[in-house]
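hi! just following up on the protien thing from before. the input was this:
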Amino acid sequence: MRRAVCPGSFDPIHNGHLEVIARAAGLFDEVIVAVSTNYTKKYRFSLEERMDMARETLASLRGIIVEPMGEGLLAEYCRHRGISAIVKGLRSSSDFDYELPMATMNRQLSGVETVFLPAESHYLHLSSTLIKEVNALGGDISEFVPKSVLKRLLAGEPPTEQPRKG
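and the predicted 3d structure came back as:
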């Protein structure tokens, strides 16, 4: 079985993420959407909310599993789960410059390969941070996020507190 992981914080998941995950599902037998928590970030949604939005949005795609990544290295997560590839979407050359050293390190640590998928041109500008900012300032984000995400963002709940390690 060819198994890949699409890791990310997905705060929130947006149409650019969905496009890359759907393409990965066409390349691999199983794609794990590993929702991560970076303790240096302040999240809008809790881990459970981010996983719920991903599950709701990806339910129609075959071979997709959504789960928390947990703590530790992505390379170790891949080794433990029998994952042979990490799939990353690239919007620009700066994404590549950021991702390449991590891809090389992950390959050296566990033998896992990284597959880079260029984003569709109409999603090149999307980032979770930008979507949250535009939404907070009253902009229309409906064409950039799935309905389950839009509903939660428009509910206007206050941001989730930064998770505490330990």
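The mean pLDDT is 91.
The beta strands are 3-8, 30-35, 64-68, 85-90, 113-118.
cheers
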